[in-house]
TrEMBL record, chain A:
Subcellular location: Cell membrane
One Pfam family from the record: Cache_WalK
Protein name as annotated: histidine kinase
GO molecular function: ATP binding; phosphorelay response regulator activity; phosphorelay sensor kinase activity; protein kinase activator activity
Domain HAMP: 201-253
EC number(s) on file: 2.7.13.3
Hydrolase is among the record's keywords: no
Entry superkingdom: Bacteria
Topology class, membrane: Multi-pass membrane protein
Gene Ontology BP annotations: osmosensory signaling via phosphorelay pathway
Annotated Histidine kinase domain residues: 377-597
Any GO CC annotation of this UniProt entry: plasma membrane
EC class (word): transferase
UniProtKB/TrEMBL annotation, chain B:
InterPro entries assigned to the protein according to its UniProt record, in alphabetical order: YycH (IPR009996), YycH/YycI_2 (IPR042274)
Transmembrane segments: 7-26
Domain Regulatory protein YycH: 3-441
Keywords: Membrane, Transmembrane, Transmembrane helix
Name recorded for this polypeptide: Two-component signal transduction system YycFG, regulatory protein YycH
Source organism: Melghirimyces algeriensis
């Protein structure tokens, strides 16, 4: 195992606990050992010294009579030698009897050569400076305790006993005890280490298990549980972890649900949404955004690569911004997208991302254009007859035309016609306005469509004959009754039939037909063989004031609102209207009306 | 931050543990440095031949006169002298009582009986004499000093009579004692004795008559040879004791002795702890050692003091020659006794030389311990290098010299043989002389003149009065 692995192994809490525990135990045992051995050594030392003191004291009681002042002699020295020989002394000790001049006068056999020598160590005792002297010296690798005790006679120091005792035995005993203690220490440390490993494992194993569980949880698996083996802190931790896991599981489920909902919302939003990180890389988008931009968006793709902008977005944005992008589609169609850039800010105002909301504002734009166009058309349509009326009235006023009654009559007729046209226009506009505002009071009632259609045919049969146009009425017999306002339906039919007559050349044919549809509606169709409408104008043909050929339409007295009114009436009755046309061949306008008693014919 | 602290604590724990383990592993119990030399050899300055084993050897009378029915011989310190002293030492005194011998008794004792007269050149206290005898018999306190011990009797069953004679108090204390083989001892003494000596009591005519002896006085007899007495002239090489050796001997811890110069070539060595000092005169080569730290109010008996002195001297073989107790002077101020020991060469006391004071004597003061020790640091070895024939003046020459000085025997305490010392080229020359002790304790020396004809005086003036 390489050092890094060893480091990893011992860097665990378990081994840290074991090492710390063992070291603390070791230090504690060392301190105890030091104190114990200090005390043990002191005790042994004191005992050893006391033993020597006892021996010296006893010996001095014996020899002091042989050393009384004035009694010194060789004989007495011999007697002292004999005393030393017979005295029950520890034979390993060396004993010297020293006279008052510090001279060794007798000694145990082992140190006869010392006789007659001066022992300087005993001076302090001989001079009475110290009651006794205890020293420890090192000699030949061994320690010796030197003990000097005075010999007193009649209260006067007459000599000294100097004892030299080897301390090997004492230190051997201490060493033996030391060995025992070391063995006990080692054994207890091994045992304690073993127990500590077990203890540490009981603590760290649940933690390890929790760690593994956390790792698994981090990978997304919340199903596993940590085993709760006890009711202590570790057990409570495991329980809390399981509880946490459960909560997380629930929270994640909720989050997933929320996410799903959010995804659903995103997916089904009419607006496109793109979210980026602070660097402008896409992190979230919905399908609508792709549709609106008409391109595939990828995660992490730069937003500037996605948006068709001439100038890239400079990130980060700190304020909300809006921009409009116009996308050119096929067939001269276009799409206008409004993009709202909203920065995602932290509390510290730091930008952490960007949300782009893409709104298709093409319809609004179109409506706006139509509105503007409508106003322009209305203005134009009103100004045109007014201008005509004004000019003719001015001509009349100048008097030239009045001199010619025919001319004046024609001028007045024209003026009347223009005023009528303006009246029609205003009438149509008001009707449209009422229809838009839903202010029209429909007096719906059950009507026989055949009757309505025949009446309309009757009204236009004369005009057709005048114009040399063949009029055909084709009505199915089993038409169901419709629930409609008679007048409104009349106007609807009038608008359609007048257009058909108007744009069908002589010799052409206008057909009014009706049939029962399977869905219960009654479909009425007005067909002509007129000039037809270009295909591109078909979509806008129901727009107000929309004309394929404005000049011709105006010339024919049209207000440009007839089809719009027809469409509004049809739709106000719950039906629909659409036009089919082929240029130079004719046009068919079909509208449906709901039956009064709807019958659904099953196929 | 806390984590760092924990890590530091862990590192500290590990380090502390390791350091503590190492410290404990390598630590050992303390002990005193043993480099100091604990034992010092004591220099032995003299020769062990001069060692005195017992007090009686030290306090032995230096002169023994063998009286044998009118014949008189002198035995000076020698093997025979030692034998006689030993015998006397073992004599156990009994029945002590003071007597007043009649003149007839004295006359009979000197002229007709046999006996041994042990003479001290100076009177010695009774306490010293007690030590001379082995027995425990108490000598009456009235007798303060003893000059002579006279042993006589027939020796029946070895019982003898002993007189303890005090010249100063003119008293005789009689005792009896058993001396083993007395008769043979006496015979041996006769054989070992010198040539016959003539007894002189009142004049130059030898001999002693009953009428000459005054009643109730103790006769003091001077014994001189009829002819010149052959005594060798000796020359010794002088040897010197190193003062450093004396330091080693006298101080308990010579390593802590301070040397101070007092005056020109005079030094004092002091050991402050033990209140000991040693004055050393380098010019005179003598020393005085004092141990003032051991003065005791109670003085010991003379015997014990002598024992203390002998033990003290034995430790360093301080007896550099044959020294015998010469005198004991009591210092009444200190209640101490000054013991003066005289050097004897070839059995005769040595005097001088004048330029080496203290060469001939050693002075010691002792109570519980030796408190004073005065001696010369010169000494002569035991064997003479040069021995020349020489003589002591005859009795006639002695009397002639006295006559020339208008002196007679009544002015003289003692006349005994001795050596007068002189130094020459680091040599000690010993000239045989008659030591004349006058009544006033002064002494003069009478020797054969350098020409060999006649005598000449040295030392004290012949007329000391």
């Amino acid at each position: 195992m390489n050092p890094v692995k060893w480091f990893k192994v011992f860097n665990s809490v378990q081994w840290k606990m074991v090492i710390i525990y063992v070291l603390l135990l070791l230090i504690a045992m060392q301190l105890i050992g030091v104190y114990f051995f200090q005390k043990l050594e002191d005790t042994f030392y004191a005992s050893f010294e006391n033993d020597l003191k006892k021996q010296a004291k006893t010996l001095q009681e014996v020899v002091k009579y042989n050393m009384a002042p004035g009694t010194e002699s060789d004989k007495q020295k011999r007697e002292i030698d004999e005393i030393l020989e017979k005295f029950p002394l520890d034979k390993s000790n060396t004993v010297q009897i020293i006279d008052h001049e510090s001279i060794v006068i007798a000694t145990t056999n082992s140190e006869n050569s010392r006789k007659g020598q001066k022992n300087i160590r005993v001076n302090n005792v001989l001079q009475g400076n110290k009651e006794s002297i205890t020293e420890v010296i090192q000699k030949a690798g061994n320690r010796y305790m030197l003990y000097t005790y005075p010999i007193k006679h009649d209260g006067e120091i007459i000599g000294a006993i100097h004892m030299e005792a080897p301390m090997q035995e004492m230190y051997r005993t201490i060493r033996d005890i030391n060995k025992i203690l070391i063995k006990v220490t080692v054994a207890s440390m091994v045992g304690a280490s073993f127990l500590m490993i077990i203890l540490a494992r009981t603590i760290t194993n649940p933690i390890k298990e929790i760690t593994e569980q956390a790792t698994i949880m981090a990978e997304g698996n919340f199903d596993r549980k940590v085993t709760v083996k006890s009711d202590d802190e570790i057990g409570k931790l495991a329980s809390s972890f399981n509880h946490l896991a459960q909560h997380l599981r629930n929270a994640l489920s909720q989050n997933e649900a929320e996410k799903g909902r959010l995804q659903s919302v995103l997916t089904n939003m009419s607006d496109g949404v793109i979210a980026t990180d602070r660097k402008g890389r896409v992190i979230v988008f919905n399908r609508r955004a792709e549709e609106m931009l008409n391109k595939t968006i990828h995660h992490k793709e730069d937003i500037n690569d996605i948006l068709p902008r001439s100038h890239p977005i400079i990130l980060p944005l700190t304020e909300e911004r809006e921009t409009f992008v116009e996308l050119d589609l096929e067939d001269d169609a276009f799409t206008i997208i409004k993009i709202t850039f909203t920065p995602v800010l932290r509390a510290s105002r730091e930008t952490i991302g960007l949300i782009l909301v893409l709104q298709d504002v093409t319809e609004e734009e179109k409506l706006d254009r139509q509105r503007k166009e409508f106003v322009a058309n209305v203005s134009h349509e009103l100004r045109t007859p007014l201008t005509t009326i004004k000019s003719y009235l001015e001509a009349l006023d100048e008097g030239g035309a009045m001199e010619e009654p025919e001319l004046a009559s024609r001028f007045l007729q024209v003026t009347r016609q223009e005023a009528e046209r303006m009246t029609r226009l205003i009438h149509d506009l008001l009707q449209l306005s009422r229809l838009d505002a839903k202010n029209v009071q429909f007096h719906k009632q059950a009507l026989q469509p055949k009757e309505i259609l025949q009446n309309a045919g009757d009204r236009f049969a004369f005009q057709c004959r005048q114009k040399g146009i063949r009029f055909q009425l084709s009505i199915e017999d089993n038409l169901s009754r419709i629930y409609a306002d008679r007048d409104q339906i009349h106007q609807l039919l009038d608008n359609l039939l007048s257009n058909a007559v108007k744009y069908t050349p002589e010799g052409g044919c206008v057909t009014l037909s009706a049939q029962q549809k399977r869905d219960g509606f009654v479909e009425v169709a007005v067909s002509d063989t007129g000039i037809g409408i270009p295909k591109k104008d078909l979509e806008r043909i129901f727009e107000r004031f929309y004309r394929v050929d404005k000049a011709r339409s105006r010339l024919m007295g049209g207000t440009g609102l007839g089809l719009s009114i027809a469409k509004e009436i049809a739709e106000a009755h719950g039906g629909s209207i659409h036009m089919e046309s082929e240029l130079e061949k004719g046009t068919t306008v079909r509208f449906t009306l709901p039956s009064c008693e709807p019958e659904v014919n099953q196929p | 931050m806390i984590e760092h602290m924990k890590s530091l604590a862990l590192v500290f724990l590990v380090t502390a543990s390791i350091i503590q383990t190492l410290l404990l592993w390598y630590s050992s119990p303390s002990y005193q440095d043993n480099r100091i030399t604990a034992f010092e050899d004591i220099p032995q300055i003299g020769h062990k031949d001069f060692k005195k084993h017992e007090i009686h050897e030290l306090a032995a009378p230096p002169e023994i006169l063998v009286h044998s029915k009118g014949k008189h011989q002198r035995i000076l310190p020698s093997e025979a002298h030692q034998t006689l002293v030993e015998k006397l030492h073992h004599a156990q005194l009994e029945n002590l009582n003071e007597i007043t011998p009649s003149s007839a008794r004295w006359e009979r004792l000197i002229n007709k009986e046999s006996g041994l007269e042990f003479r001290f050149h100076h009177e010695l206290p009774t306490g010293v004499i007690k030590g001379f005898f082995k027995g425990k018999e108490t000598i009456p306190e009235e007798i303060e000093n003893i000059n002579r011990i006279w042993v006589f009797g027939e020796g029946d069953q070895n019982r003898v009579t002993i007189w303890l004679i005090s010249d100063r108090t003119q008293t005789v204390t009689q005792a009896t004692a058993l001396i083993q083989d007395y008769k043979s001892l006496l015979n041996s003494a006769k054989q070992a004795g010198s040539t016959a000596l003539l007894p002189f009591y009142k004049g130059e005519k030898p001999g002693l008559k009953k009428e000459d002896i005054t009643e109730e006085t103790i006769p003091r007899i001077t014994y001189l040879p009829k002819k010149r007495l052959k005594v060798p002239h000796l020359t010794y090489k002088l040897e010197q004791i190193k003062v450093e050796h004396m330091k080693m001997i006298l101080f308990r811890n010579p390593n802590y002795v301070k040397k101070t110069e007092l005056s020109d070539q005079s030094f004092i060595y002091t050991e402050l702890e033990s209140l000991r000092n040693l004055r050393y005169d380098e010019k005179k080569k003598n020393m005085i050692y004092k141990n003032t730290g051991t003065e005791s109010e109670t003085s010991l008996p003379h015997v014990k003091e002598l024992n203390t002195i002998n033990a003290f001297m034995d430790r360093h073989n301080g007896w550099t020659g044959n020294y015998l107790l010469q005198s004991v002077e009591q210092d009444k101020n200190n209640n101490l006794n000054n013991y003066r020991f005289q050097l004897y060469v070839e059995g005769m006391p040595v005097f001088g030389p004048d330029n080496l004071p203290g060469f001939d004597t050693i002075r010691l003061v002792a109570s519980q311990r030796v408190t004073e020790y005065e001696r010369s640091l010169f000494f002569s070895p035991s064997r003479s290098e040069i021995k020349k024939p020489d003589y002591l003046p005859s009795a006639e020459e002695v009397f002639d010299s006295l006559k020339k000085q208008n002196l007679n025997l009544s002015d003289i305490q003692q006349i005994y043989p001795g050596y007068q010392a002189a130094t020459e080229k680091k040599q000690l020359k010993l000239k045989p002389v008659w030591v004349v002790i006058f009544d006033n304790e002064k002494q003069g020396f009478l020797e054969i003149s350098d020409t060999g004809r006649g005598t000449q005086w040295t030392g004290a003036k012949p007329n000391p009065s």
